[in-house]
Design goal:
By secondary structure, the protein is an alpha/beta fold. Helix 5 packs antiparallel against helix 6, helix 10 packs parallel to helix 14 and helix 14 crosses helix 15. The protein is elongated and about 65 Å long. The strands form four sheets. A six-stranded mixed beta sheet has the order 4-3-5-9-11-14, sandwiched between helices. The two termini are 49 Å apart. Strand 7 and strand 8 form a beta hairpin. 35% of the residues lie in helices and 13% in strands.
Length: 448
């Protein structure tokens, strides 16, 4: 979808969610080829299944349906007698096009920081040197460029303070009291510890425009072996469509986890940016349709998967977060030898799928459950590509496997992934740095 049409949908989103009669649209949307029956069924199941939730999901999905999606959608509105909404969108679209044509090239040139618009008009009318000499020189200090309230506060490590206990014995005031240590880490005593589902998408259909992910099988084999050694029951699903991915995830979530202590989900696929409220990004099924990370994670939340309530749920995502390639910046300790001779890294990037912004109705945000006991690890920073070698697998999975092998018996999950981030960030000419969203309440040590 064109950026102008996408922005128009974002501006009109509230009115569409409020007034759109979705039940009358389904047949028209299918007949005009905007959606398949399976896609319509997924939209109908969005959220609570209410009209507003269905309308909200329809508008979000509409942005992924190609350049002609908005004109076809307007035609569907007209076909179903929703002429006022159709006219509203048509008028808004024509107005936006006229405004775009009215913008002159001069208006697109930004002025320097502190430049007064009136001075800009004077320069345009009189480009002589005399006018330019009258312009004030504006130098902004760093604290003005970034106000104090927006600058991050430097947190200094707290110095341990010795205090006297009731028995007269000195102890560290920051150290946990007796009986508190058991509450600082999740208890992973069950054997097996839990399920580990690995979805490995390698071969994509021709119409998706996505290339085969050579080397992903290497990643899959490494993680299959590694999580078995960590006492997980590992199941591997290969080359799943978007719908089959959701079915496999839903089936895993519906299992009885009461006697288990943890659950792990690994996604190996192409990825892209996507609209989100909690967790960024999306991964592709082999049919070229995407599933948002947020939707995947929420399949395992406390409402959908009560038997995992209070237990850690870990997600590892090997997929691109976007299409940007990071050249990095020069540091003294850069290691050019990290780029192995003869290696041929590929990215898991796919086109950006931006959805509606944060200008949604408050009830949509408030209805999302709190993601407690959830940890989502991404192979790359949102917006950037994730690199994969066709022979040795992805940088992220290769490093993760090595770190788990060496340190899983002594370090907690966050420390392990800091090691992964540091090691991956030093690789290659193009740069990559993994990251994570942590909603765990305690430290997590794997059972080794």
């Amino acid at each position: 979808m064109d950026e102008a049409d996408r922005q128009l949908l974002r501006r009109c989103r509230l009115q569409l969610v409020r007034e759109l009669q979705v039940a009358e649209l389904w047949d028209a949307l299918v007949s005009r080829g905007l959606f398949t029956p399976d896609m319509i069924e997924e939209i109908q199941q969005a959220g609570s299944g209410s009209r507003r939730d269905q309308a909200r999901q329809l508008i979000a999905d509409l942005e992924t349906r190609g350049r002609q999606a908005l004109p076809l959608f307007i035609s569907c509105l007209q076909d179903t007698g929703q002429d006022m909404l159709a006219s509203f969108l048509n008028t808004s679209r024509q107005t936006a096009e006229q405004n775009l044509e009215a913008i002159r090239p001069w208006d697109l040139v930004p002025g320097p920081v502190g430049f007064n618009p009136d001075e800009l008009r004077v320069v345009k009318q009189d480009p002589s040197g005399s006018t330019m000499r009258c312009l004030p020189t504006v130098v902004l200090r760093p604290d003005k460029l970034r106000p104090a309230e927006l600058r991050p506060e430097v947190l200094r490590p707290e110095v341990p303070r010795p205090v006297t206990s009731g028995s007269g014995e000195l102890r560290d005031a920051c150290a946990p009291r007796s009986g508190e240590k058991a509450n600082l880490a999740y208890v992973l005593e069950a054997d097996p510890c839990g399920y580990c589902l690995i979805i490995n998408n390698v071969n994509f259909c021709l119409k998706s425009g996505l290339s085969s992910r050579t080397g992903s099988d290497v990643d899959c084999e490494k993680l299959q072996r590694r999580f078995r050694l960590l006492h997980f029951m590992v199941e591997v699903k290969c080359d799943l469509t978007a719908k089959d991915m959701l079915l496999a995830l839903g089936e895993m979530a519906q299992r009885e986890h009461g006697a288990l202590d943890c659950c792990v989900v690994v996604i190996l696929s192409h990825g892209c940016q996507a609209s989100h409220r909690q967790f960024p990004g999306a991964v592709y099924g082999t049919d070229g349709y995407s599933v948002s990370i947020e939707r995947i994670v929420n399949i395992f939340n406390g409402t959908s998967c009560p038997s995992l309530g209070g237990k850690p749920k870990l997600f590892f995502i090997q997929a691109c977060g976007g299409e940007q390639k990071d050249h990095g910046f020069e540091v003294a300790s850069a290691s050019p030898e990290d780029w192995a001779s003869g290696s041929n890294p590929e990215s898991d990037a796919a086109p950006f799928q931006e959805g509606p912004g944060s200008s949604d109705q408050p009830d949509a945000v408030a209805s999302l459950p709190t993601p407690s006991d959830i940890f989502v690890s991404y192979s790359t920073f949102p917006g950037f590509v994730s690199w994969r070698d066709s022979r040795s697998g992805s940088w992220y999975i290769e490093t993760l496997d090595g770190v788990l092998e060496q340190w899983a018996d002594s370090e907690d999950l966050q420390t392990l992934l800091l090691r992964v981030a540091n090691a991956v960030s030093e690789k290659g000419i193009y740069k990559q740095i993994p990251g994570y969203f942590n909603f765990l309440r305690k430290k997590l040590f794997f059972k080794t």
